[in-house]
């Protein structure tokens, strides 16, 4: 496993992190706790030292905390998220920060997460939505600084709204944030335009989510794909969207000259090819997925020619809508 710096605070993280939404039995259907625990342990065995969870991910914080406590001899860094008090995703324009992240709500959420996980601190606490309209307003930053001084959190970050990478540029440039979490993949390359360079300039760590487009960049989403009732992917990949994804992936496979089952590997290597990226956090619900993904931390980014090919495969759309 290779490691990168998470921003300017000297925290070193595995370049393959662990996205723990899927193990919480909330938005994703099919995870079992026993397999999730085995997968987390296997990830730590293979050098993963960064796990991303959230207050809103069902049982995820509890399961992650259990494994971290069982691995007390290993340094495992945990990031979690504070949901907006108004429960509105993404953050709409015109919302006062007092409606989404008042100080009392932030503190209550962090303390609840600590209690549920059984941990004594979090290495990163992130707001689960963000609006640059909040820079310099509200009491959220004061509360964050207090929680840092109390030792309950080490770094502060935000999870940027889906497909809105420029909606954190003011925050990054303000110096108030340590990390940002953003969607970045072969389809959505927009963060490379302004956000990633700004993060490099200001020493802000970058956590990449949805590198595999919620499964779209695995090659397993094809026309007619269906998902269990209650699984968020049933909405994400509704109507003719699976067929659209299948066509787009087929074009990438053809242009790169790779086998269809190599698309996920190349999608993760695309993300890791950016020096601004600190870690990528694919969702991993099984030991098999852990072993396949961690094997890609081998120092082999895509070539300049491959990246040039992929630059032509941007696909501007928002399946969350």
Task: Give short descriptive properties of this protein.
321 residues, alpha/beta, two-stranded antiparallel ribbon, 12 helices, 10 strands, 35% helix, globular
Q: What do these coordinates show?
A:
It is a single chain. The protein has about 325 residues and is of the alpha/beta class. About 35% of the residues lie in helices and about 15% in strands. It has 12 helices and 10 strands. It has an 8-stranded parallel beta sheet with strand order 3-4-5-6-7-8-9-10, with helices on one face. The radius of gyration is 19 Å and the shape is globular. The model has no long low-confidence stretch (mean pLDDT about 95).
Reconstruct the topology from this structure:
Elements: E1 3-5, E2 12-14, E3 18-19, H1 33-45, E4 50-52, H2 60-70, E5 77-82, H3 97-100, H4 103-117, E6 122-127, H5 140-149, E7 153-159, H6 169-174, E8 179-183, H7 195-202, E9 205-209, H8 233-236, H9 241-256, H10 263-272, E10 279-280, H11 287-294, H12 304-311
Parallel strand pairs: 3-4, 4-5, 5-6, 6-7, 7-8, 8-9, 9-10
Antiparallel strand pairs: 1-2
Helix pairs in contact: 1-2, 1-11, 4-5
* Helix amount: 25-40%
Mean pLDDT rating: 96
Determine the number of helices (DSSP H or I, runs of at least 4 residues): 12
Strand order of the largest sheet: 3-4-5-6-7-8-9-10
What is the count of β-strands? 10
Distance between the termini: 36 Å
* Shape annotation: globular
Which residues form runs of ≥5 with pLDDT under 50? none
| Major sheet description | 8 strands, parallel
Query: SSE string, helix = H, strand = E?
Result: EEEHEHEHHEHEHEHEHHHEHH
Beta-strand content bin: 5-15%
* Class by alpha and beta content: alpha/beta
Using the CA coordinates, give the radius of gyration. Answer: 19 Å
């Amino acid at each position: 496993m290779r490691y990168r710096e998470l921003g300017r605070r000297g925290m070193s993280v595995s370049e393959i992190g662990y996205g723990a939404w899927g193990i919480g039995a909330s938005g994703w259907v099919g995870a079992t706790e026993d397999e999730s625990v085995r997968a987390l342990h296997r990830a730590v065995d293979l050098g993963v030292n960064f796990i991303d969870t959230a207050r809103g991910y069902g049982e995820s914080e509890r399961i992650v905390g259990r494994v971290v406590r069982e691995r007390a001899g290993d340094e495992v860094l945990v990031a979690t998220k504070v949901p907006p008090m108004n429960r509105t995703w993404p953050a709409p324009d015109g919302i006062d920060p007092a409606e989404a992240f008042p100080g009392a709500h932030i503190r209550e959420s962090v303390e609840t997460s600590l209690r549920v996980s059984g941990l004594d601190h979090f290495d990163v606490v992130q707001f689960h939505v963000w609006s640059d309209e909040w820079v310099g307003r509200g009491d959220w930053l004061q509360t964050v600084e207090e929680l840092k001084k109390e030792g309950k959190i080490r770094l502060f970050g935000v999870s940027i709204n889906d497909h809105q990478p420029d909606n954190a540029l003011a925050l990054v440039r303000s110096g108030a944030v340590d990390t940002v979490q953003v969607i970045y993949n072969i389809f959505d390359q927009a963060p490379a335009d302004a956000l990633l360079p700004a993060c490099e300039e200001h020493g802000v760590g970058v956590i990449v989510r949805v590198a595999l487009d919620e499964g779209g960049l695995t090659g397993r989403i094809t026309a007619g794909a269906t998902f269990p009732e209650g699984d968020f992917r049933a909405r994400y990949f509704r109507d003719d969207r699976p067929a659209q994804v299948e066509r787009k992936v087929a074009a990438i496979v053809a242009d790169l000259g790779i086998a269809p089952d190599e698309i996920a590997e190349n999608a993760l290597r695309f993300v890791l090819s950016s020096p601004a990226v600190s870690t990528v956090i694919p969702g991993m619900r099984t030991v098999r997925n852990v072993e396949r993904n961690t094997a890609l931390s081998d120092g082999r980014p895509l070539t300049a020619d491959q990246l040039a090919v992929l630059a032509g495969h941007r696909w501007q759309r928002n399946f969350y809508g």
